């Protein structure tokens, strides 16, 4: 790799092992896996940074070393000397791309708690995983990681890409916005992947699912250009973004990851925030899963819209009824025009009320129809996945081909 590695550091050049899972899996079995990852699943080791060129600086900046003499399998991340062009060496004693998380080569494991808290907070989706049992049929989401549109097609749906580091907001969309979590720089380091594969299995599973989602977000070179523009992809050690060809080599190992190897959240692709908010309100007794409008004024302005619409409809109907009743009680001259005007005054409000009722009925029927379609789509996707259909739940482009 072009960088000096201390003799007592475990080598980071590990060849990925073959995937041991069958191509067909039972979606019900995969979804029944606990969200806290307490099952010791046999997960294939993936160290994708070996497939990317000119990553020597990033790879050599950290290594792994046993830190407990009584437990040889215990591991800690440690900084590694990186050679400079002038012949000197530099040691960056922090997690690549995150100077707030310090590493210590003299006392390996001394930052275990800090590093563990950081990894859990930035990669685990435990709270979101626990909500899917409520959303399975009531608030249906398509149970497929293929249900992801590429970045350029997000713009075709008039969605704005919002950057957010919270793992539970990754690929959550709300009307004209979708949240995307950027890829951390330390994902380029083979030592990091080997470390979490041995020391933090739950984090390793979450990172596998997260990176698998990026394979579908970035499908074309235009998607890659947008990802670089939005800083979704980290730069290499030389300060430059990888080429599109290098990126494809980097992301390829994640295409063979199965649902049973990742947390529940990554069994799914894009998620609707409106349905997550409803699930949180009904089952978690929370106001929302995520508050887009943190101030009460903005929240009430947005939430009162439907209530004001209902109030306006009721007002129109009541006024129509009042007009009709008043017209019936009115004695008008027997002139030839007045009886006609009275009949119009009586029947026109009734027609308006009937039209409003028809519109409400059609709207309600449309909502019920879409709910049934979503429910059927979710059940059908699960059945197709049981039969081994690799395309089950794939996100369509929303047009008729």
From TrEMBL:
The chain crosses the membrane at residues 307-327, 347-377. The keyword Transmembrane applies. InterPro entries: DUF6601. It holds the Pfam family DUF6601. It comes from the Eukaryota. Keywords: Membrane, Transmembrane, Transmembrane helix. Residues 11-22 have a biased composition (Polar residues). Residues 1-22, 83-106 are annotated as: Disordered. The keyword Transmembrane helix applies. This is Uncharacterized protein. The lineage of its organism: Eukaryota, Fungi, Dikarya, Ascomycota, Pezizomycotina.
